[in-house]
What does this fold into?
Amino acid sequence: MKIRTKLTIFFSVILFVMMMALTVWYQYRHYYFVKTEIDKKLDMLSQKLIDRIKFEKNDLFRNFMDMPPDFKDFKGKPDFKDIRGKPDFSKIDPPLDKVINNYTWYTVYDDNLKALETTNLSLKYPLDNVKSFIGRKYFITKLRLDPDYFRQHELNFFREINFIMGLGFYPENGNYNFFCMGKSTPFQFENKTNYLVILLPVNKYKSYFEKTIINAVFSLLFLIWIIIMLGSFYSKYTLEPINKIINDLNNISENSLSGRIGLNKNNKDEISAISASINNLLARIENAFNMEKQFISDVSHEFKTPIAILQLNIDNISNNPNLTDEDIDKITSSLEILYSLDTLIQKLLYLSRLESDQKIFVPKDINLKELLDSIINNLAVTADLKGLKLVFTMEDQNLSVKGDRDLLYFSFYNIIENAVKYTIKGHVSVLVERKEGDARIMVEDTGIGIPENKINKVFDKFYRVDSARNDGKSFGIGLSIAKRILDLHHAAVSIESIENQGTKFIIDFPYK
Amino acid sequence: MNILIVEDNLRISDNISYILKNESYNFDISYNGNDGYQKALNNAYDLIILDLMLPGMDGFEIIEALRGNNIDTPILVLSAKSQVEDKVKALNLGSDDYICKPFAAAELLARIKSIFRRKHDLSSNIIKIDALKLDTNKKEAWIKKNKLDLTQKEYELLEFLVYNKNKVVSKIAIGQYIWGESLDFFTMSNFIDVHISNLRKKMELLCNKKYIRTKRGLGFILTDEENQ
It folds into this structure.
């Protein structure tokens, strides 16, 4: 994951949590406020009911146990006002009173949890459910009211000056569900502990809560979007210098080591510091690299002069007519070794130039048929003398690859020559075919093969599979140059080999 | 023939002078660039053998300065720098030939003779050895009146042997002269054997005289002598 994405996510999550906490806090404050309001109301209602029960001290309320409270029972009582009549649901105004603005019902239980009195609709409501609330200070529950019940029973509405006692019913869009907040209050009456359980519908608040939550969710989503956008832009802005470093570094490795990361001199942040450090490191690497390059080049040139002197000396001696056969053998072998040494130096120079990327080429279309033909013609002589069959098969004569002709010649020449060199009898075959768009060149021999654990080392400089094979005249560097050249051409090389049966080099050139 | 050798390495210049002495050339030796340049400027030479890496003026500067002063003495560059770019640079500046170190005496001589033929119009461009006749301009060879049908490599091989008439040339010298690139010794040796044998066959078809002989171990020799 990119740092930019990580930072964006990190800051978004942190900001989101903060916003969330704020919202929750705000919601809670509001809830708390509302709850306190309802609580006050419940307290007040409970107190009034309890006072009334104590004040009446008669059976008035007990009658409610068996029948709905009758208006007659309250008639004449100064605090009650007759609002009885057939309820016309459409005309019932919701109470506007700010404190007592809801319909209430209650039940009084004795300490055995026997319902002593209740509003008649509370009877309908499963008492077991309410019983379980006894002892709790507050609870919230949901009442499902059956509208048919109201049609069958004559309802009693008691409106006190400050509150409505009993059950009020207010159909809200046919929704008969009431969310209620309730409270159970213990009180002493006739030396017994009784409980008053009172329920207050809070539908109005509920929808208010729901609305608030939906608003909060939408505003949070919007906030998240803004936070992500801002975070993304900000991290892009902050990480811009790092991207610049990456680009600069890529350019440096693709071209040469001489490039450096551009520094902003006015900026003293960590990125400037890291850029300076990288530049420092690059300078040291370049220096070391140049030194090695120069070293190989210098050493090679320094070797050439002594070799030249030796060769000339030996040349001059060999023209002496009085040499014995033994002398001649020694002279010849010295000349051959000198020549091999020279060849090795040439190859080392070649390799050092390849590795230092001095030899940058412009890729051209190289016809494989023409290239391999010339190599095979050159090697045919050697193969003939060894009695080997050198076979060249190519299906598509026009197959070509992109690259540098001289380099590819060197590379293929070394691989095929190696096959010829290490094959005593049998054949060496070169096969070119189109493989899924790639050009595949296979060089297969029936030679001595390479032990499996040494296949990977074949391309190492100066590596020889078997040190006994060293004839003292050639050095194991041709294949590593060949590999390096193929790498430059983005070609993949793989080797399959069975010891004493043969080796197969497979070279895949990418489709151009 | 007057030759100037500009070479700071004493042993190399000694060897070159030894080779030239055997061929009866006159020569001067200069051990640094500035001295070499002055000598080349003030004396008339037929050839300058020039090293590239020299104390004082380097080889490139000398070539440039001489050609700038309208001195068109042939210049044979002799250098340890074997990169194509160096060769191209030296030849573009106006040198006539380029030999990489290390080199064989035979190669040096062949190139010197080749330059002399090209530049100094040596009597004619025909070399005759007994019945063998070489036209170095047309790159053709005859035996008596019959033209030899040679490939380019075979002609170069013959010319090289002719330039080193009566001297043993090693396979390595031939390889360096004709192929130039760094071939593996084993491969190169086979190449030369095949080319020599082809050349011999072609020559023996026209004339039963053995011009090219094998010197055991050492290499080959082209000679017009009957015996041996």
In short: The first strand of chain A starts at residue 81 and ends at 82. Confidence is low (pLDDT under 50) at residues 58-103, 149-175 of chain A. The CA atoms of residues 460 and 480 of chain A lie 6 Å apart. The first helix of chain A runs from residue 3 to 56.
